[in-house]
Amino acid sequence: MCRQCEINPVWEFTNKRKLCKTCFAKYFRRKINYTIRKFCLIEKGDKVGVAVSGGKDSMATLFVLNDFCKKNRSELIALFIDEGIKCSGKNYRDKGKKYIEKFCKDNNIEFIETSFEKEYKLTLNKKLSQIKKIKISNCFVCSILKRALLNKIARSKGITKLATGHSLDDEAETIILNLVKGDIKLLAKLGPIAGVLHNRKFAARIKPLYLCTTKEIVLFARLMNIKYDSKICPIRSDTLRIKIRKFLSGLEKQHPEVKRAIVNSYLKIMPLLKLKFKDRKINYCEICSEPTSTGKCKTCWVLKKLE
After folding, report:
1. Tens-of-pLDDT digits for all 307 residues of the chain?
2. How far apart are CA 284 and CA 221, in angstroms?
3. Where do the domains of the chain lie, and which CATH numbers do they carry?
4. Which of 46, 65, 233, 254 is 20 to 30 Å apart from 154, CA to CA?
5. What are the distances in angstroms from CA 64 to CA 57, 195, 252?
């Protein structure tokens, strides 16, 4: 039984402590508030944007930040991008978009929608053969173009913090991924607030669900009756990240809390990593003038390859 209410539980921790529906919802919200306060994710005067796809993580992020921003009188905007992905002849994002639009309408949240076709004059479905020829993954192309577009919208709307639905599971995967690749610079960019260097052209990217596991997010969404699209992207590549995800999930079954241990270990060394790379020089892309570490940004490189 739930330790506090002595009624049927819906959640059990690894230490066998149990929580009922009401207590779990309180626990989840407290964890979000703790994450925001501890890492200073949202401060007074911030204008918050949420990158929403319609999936469980982004919808849960929008749900909890709606409550948080109302209580703290912060402005909230939902940002949606259609990549142009087809699934069984239909637009893959249509179902998720409907859920986002309804939630925003019911809660009086500004909803901004755009697409790869509108901004880049392309859709991912029409570029799949080209992506395969240049030997990069669909996920790489999608993430690069989407990140640039989200930042462009955030800048145009005066958004100071851009929230994503990255969970503890996502962060554990990315930590191991960058270690396997041997890329310490990318490792330094992780954390509850992404990146190392601050630039006026970038909205700080924050992760309110940073300490929440995927299982916790799914349960919270179901308990709160949050509508979300559970379909997996039909053009998702079998990348190294997916292999690491499967490995960690298998490891977690034998050693519970291993993902949390990975993230907690990273948080201890994160300040040293960010300090090491804080003096890196910021260049500006020779084509689009966006901040980059090289002469040409990844967005322009990808778009050139897909011409």
Report:
1. 666 676 788 999 988 889 999 999 999 999 999 999 999 999 988 999 999 999 999 999 999 999 999 999 899 999 999 999 988 788 999 999 999 999 999 999 999 999 999 999 999 999 999 998 888 899 999 999 999 999 999 999 999 999 999 999 999 999 999 999 998 888 999 999 998 877 777 889 999 999 999 999 999 999 999 999 999 998 887 889 999 999 999 999 999 999 999 999 999 999 999 999 888 778 888 888 888 877 788 999 999 999 8
2. 41
3. 38-279 (3.40.50.620)
4. 233
5. 11, 23, 27
Phi-psi region of 74 (alpha: psi -120 to 50; beta: other; left: phi over 0): beta
Tell me which residue of 87, 102, 118 sits closest to 54, measured CA to CA: 102
- Quote the radius of gyration of the chain (alpha carbons, Å): 20
Q: Round to whole Å and give the CA distance between 246 and 152.
A: 34
